[in-house]
Amino acid sequence: MNKIFFYIIIFQLCSCTISNSGENAVVVDKETQDSIIKMYAAECAHAYNYNLDMKKWQDCLDKGLAVDSMIAYLWQQKAMPYFKARKYEVGMEYIDKAVKYNPKRYLGYRAFIKCIFAKTYRDAIVDFEKAKELEGNNYVMDHTYNFYIALSLLQLNEFQKAEKIFKDDIFNQKEQWGEGHYLDLFYYGISLYEQDKWEEAIVQFDKSLLQYKEFADVKFFKATCLFKLEKIEEASALYAEANLDAENGFSINEDNSIYETYPYQRRWK
Fold it and tell me: Contact, 121 vs 156, CB < 8 A?
């Protein structure tokens, strides 16, 4: 075989994706996959509100996957509404497909879903560690993979391990931006709170409140620390303040907190 012709064939194979949507495999390049996404996701599924028209949303995506079943984004779009509807096992079947076809993009996302939505914390940690091997301590939903690992450890009562990871993660944030994120500081304080380190926890809670002064959940746990330290009047005043802030909606304000209660988020009513 002519060497030039051989290299052209290899280049074409490497720049394409093989679809296994039927018995007859079809070679589909990225441009074709993008057009499928545009036709069946952007111009079809996204024309519907999945809260009102879940079937139409899913039908559009299924049509796209019938053309090419290896498009990870379409599998992720199928999964996402089920997680928000708290149908975790259904959604997980689809997100597993997204990870299969594009692990670098969706492994961290699946780990996030396991941590915040499905609340399968050991599985979440496994996924986050694998994601770190692929791309380092990257971000998903505005927080590092290590943040979610530490959050999972809190939920598994591994408080000392969580404390160390939060401390290191906040140190790295300070190196980059001059301060730690207020939610990281809250959970760092919680890791100390759970070890009866009341005064140390208050230090972190105060740092969180410097950034988000109405954060009701922080005030509740700070007030509890003050109560443990027998500062009863101060604790009572802060409990009252926390309840007022909660009534005004000042709680954890992550985008996905409208779907799921976050760890240690107070139920005020």
Answer: yes
